[in-house]
Amino acid sequence: MNVIPLTPLDLSLCAFLVILLAASSARLKLGIHKQLIVSAFRCTIQLLLVGLVLEFLFASQEFIWLAIMATIMLLVAGHAVCARQQRPLRGWWMYGIGTLSMCISSFTVTCFALQIIINTSPWYTPQYAIPLLGMLLGNTMNGIAISIDRLTQSAWQQRTVIEQRLALGQTRSVALSSITKDSMRSGMIPIINSMATTGIVSLPGMMTGQILGGSLPMDAVKYQILILFLIAAGTGFGVIAAVQLTGRRLFDERQRLRLDRYK
Amino acid sequence: MTLLKIDNLQYLDFPVLNLELNAGETISISGPSGIGKSLLLRAIADLDPHSGHIFLNDVESGSIPPEQWRLNVGFLPAESQWWEDVVADHFPLNVASDQTFSSWLDSLQLQKTILNSQTSRLSSGERQRLALIRLLNNRPKVLLLDEPTASLDSTNTKHVETIIAEYIRSTHGSAIWVSHDIDQAERVASRHFRFEGKALVSFLTQEGK
Q: Of A171, A178, A254, which has the smallest distance from its Cβ to B46's Cβ?
């Protein structure tokens, strides 16, 4: 069974709903109708562009193009992590730590899934590689952004406690341990919750898409389970790496708390 | 015999500082608050970046792990911090059966049951006394005391002075005692310093000690 293709007219009808909503918002003076229209335009243009890119990628099947696409996705995700920090590190450190942690977690997990589990041939088949990587990066990015933000904020708030613990002869990692654990937890809780409620509260987007695309529900379910496990692993390891790297950067070589390295 | 030697210490915008402390000796640093007394103690405890060298028994601070240095050069901040819910969790297990520890509690008029109380319920005076015991329990060789009796009544102030003097005597240690109270400085220390501008200078008290 093939998916029923949508015509431009179909999409225009749908866009009419958004325009209707914008008109209502304007009448209610919510002050968001402009934003709504701009976002709708952005969404259309960005998705059409990515559609073109993907068609090109799928047609060429060249590894180099896939690698370039993956790198761009990673760098944009790194930027998004930085943008969400209330107290980012000075210089390129935050960007470096965020990108590195996502790189080791998302890329490793994606490669593992492609080569060992799904076993596509060649292993970098873009139809599998890009959607997998996209979903992993999106989720790891959230987890890492939340946990680093929590870490730096708590360190800031509890700096006198950390210094008291250092003054009593505790090592850097002991003095920061409760904050570290707390931050790691906060980065992992979203994925744990979404695994616990998936299928009951909402049908996951990927599964819905696959069913709409004509897959058997059970096939779609299996892929969804795979994805959730990959996301859990990717997010978890990414968060652990990011929190440890950032925690290290809070101190200098003599284990002094150096909050002056943050803005 | 020199226990702590501060050699060309320089931090923030303070001038270069040299100081030597003998074993068994306590010195005082007085002066109004906000002049940089605490910053000096923090630099000696290696909690703030600085240049120059500090030696404890001829061992340079940078040559041993920082946590080792801070165990030996114990800094008591003016305001103590407590991060666990219960007091006892800030001390080693079984500390209550330690004789010296118990005698410190007794001398500072604290009951052993205070170990089981919530840290958030301690009075400022209890916190200050417990913080001193927590520090002494690490058996530091040098004490850096930042107004250790600021929130204590006169009786407990005397008890704290006695305990610290006894500790310095029995361990052949030494102490830098920051106090804004010149009378206290005279009671506890044999040499006296104060900040004049940003410079630490030695001075004689009225008694001419």
A: A254
| Paired tokens of A174 | 């002991």
ipTM over 0.85: yes
- Phi and psi at B88, nearest 5°, equal -60, -30
Tally of domains in chain A: 2
Contact B67 A166 (CB under 8 A): yes
C-alpha distance from residue B132 to each of A17, A108, A194, A243, B89 (Å)? 69, 50, 48, 33, 16
Name the domain boundary from A15, A37, A60.
A60
* Amino acid B209: pLDDT: 44
Q: Which chain B residues are closer than 8 Å to A170 by Cβ?
A: 67
Parent domain of A232 = 62-261
Q: Please identify which residue in the block is written with the tokens 């995700």.
A: A77
A87 lies in the same domain as A1? no
Contact B66 A170 (CB under 8 A): no
Do residues A244 and A132 both lie within one domain?
A: yes
Q: How far is A189 from chain B (nearest CA, A)?
A: 24
Please check whether residues A53 and A129 belong to one and the same domain. no
The CATH code of the domain at B2-36+53-156+179-203 is 3.40.50.300
C-alpha–C-alpha distance, residues B134 and B119, integer Å = 13
Q: How many CB atoms lie within 10 A of CB A38?
A: 10
Nearest-CA residue of chain A relative to B68?
A169
pLDDT band per the 50, 70, 90 thresholds, residue A199: confident
Question: For an interface test with A, which of B60, B83, B139 has the most A Cβ atoms less than 10 Å from its Cβ?
Answer: B83
- CB distance A33 to A22 below 8 Å: yes
| pLDDT less than 70: residues of chain B | 206-209
Q: What value, to the nearest 5°, has the Cα angle with vertex B178 and ends A174 and B159?
A: 85
Burial of B21 (0-12, 13-18, 19+ CB in 10 A): buried
- A39 and A94 within one domain: no
* CA atoms of A224 and B55, how far apart (whole Å): 62
Band of residue A102 on the pLDDT scale cut at 50, 70, 90: very high
Same domain, A44 and A92: no
Residue A107 sits in the same domain as residue A20: no
**Does residue A224 share a domain with residue A97?**
yes
Q: Which of A41, A60, A79 is the last residue of a domain?
A: A60
Residues A54/A130, Cβ–Cβ less than 8 Å:
yes
A169 to chain B: which residues are within 8 Å by CB?
67-68, 70-71, 74, 138
